[in-house]
Every structure is written in C-alpha cells, then in structure tokens.
Design a protein that fits this description.
Elements (H helix, E strand, L loop, with lengths): L16 H21 L5 H8 L6 E2 H8 L3 H13 L3 E5 L7 E5 L1 H25 L1 H20 L21
Antiparallel strand pairs: 1-3, 2-3
C-alpha cells in the first residue's frame, strides 16, 4: 500500500487522508471477504444481493450502484445465477428491461450478508462510542461531498513532459 504514494517528496503515506481511507477500506473488505468465504460466497456476491430490491432491480442499475463495470457485473450475475441465488426476468411493462430477482436461496444469503454488515458496523460503533461514530459518519459524508467538488482539471500545473523528471516518456 505504501508504494502507491511514497514518491511524494517529504510526505509520509500515513500523513495523507487517502492512505487511511484506503487502509480502512482494505481492512473492512478483508473482514467481509473472510466472512463470505466461510459461507462459500464472496463479498461482491453479498454486496450484489444487498442491492437487489424486493420487486427486482434492472441489471443496468446494479453496476452504477456498486461501482462496477458491465463486464465484471455480468460475470458476477452469471455466478449468482449459477449458484441459484438470482433469476433474470423480463420487465412486465417494458420487455427490453431485464430485472434481477432474488430466489429463496438468494434471499437467505442476502439476509446473512445483511446480518454480517449490521453486526460489523454495530461492533465498530460500540468500540468508537456514539459521539465518535456520529462524527466519523459526518466527516466521511463531508469527505465524499468534497471529493465530488474537487477541481481535478485545475489540480496540477501544466508540465512539459521534457521537464517532468517523473515522466516515463522517452
């Protein structure tokens, strides 16, 4: 993880916000991954099941909700279908739309995933205490708002490739 940002001169990785966010997410993903693996599933499968609504969800909405590309989502949906956790049905109002529905097995696994997420979050909140948990959630929401507002185009001065010592250009 350090390798991602150690090239910033004079800045230690642990002094950056993104290091701690990335490190925390890696830990959370590892915990969820271990819980899912114990049941023969994956974190991505659980996340998908949690994002399918009661009356089905159009497959085109799942990718953006979960931050997944179409090909990865398609592979994941095929895997879930192969495990008998979902089924695809044409929308009754618009036959061009394919809705993803949970099967009985999918609902059971979704409920397990929901319990795992709630239990983990409750444990973290208990360890932090109510005030710190509330502050953390507020700060993370504010961070997400700021990230969306970040003026990416204006962030770096224009550099000539010839003058950039970090450039891989020939």
């Amino acid at each position: 993880m350090y390798a991602c940002i150690t090239y910033i001169e004079g800045v230690r990785p642990e002094d950056t916000i993104d290091f701690h966010v990335r490190f925390a997410w890696a830990g959370i993903a590892r915990q969820y991954g271990q819980l899912a693996a114990a049941r023969g599933t994956t974190m991505a499968m659980g996340q998908t099941l949690l994002n399918i609504e009661k009356n089905g969800t159009p497959s085109t909405q799942l990718g953006p909700r979960m931050g997944m590309e179409k090909t990865s989502l398609s592979r994941l949906l095929n895997n879930l279908e192969g495990h008998g956790m979902i089924e695809r049905k044409a929308d009754e109002a618009d036959r061009r739309i394919v809705r993803i529905h949970l099967t009985a097995a999918g609902k059971k696994e979704r409920d397990r995933a929901r319990t795992a997420v709630r239990t983990f979050n409750a444990w973290i909140a208990d360890q932090l205490g109510a005030e710190r948990t509330e502050r953390l959630l507020g700060d993370l929401q504010k961070l997400n708002d700021l990230i969306v507002q970040y003026p990416t185009r204006d962030a770096l001065p224009e550099l000539e490739q010839d003058n950039n010592p970090d450039s891989n250009a020939a």
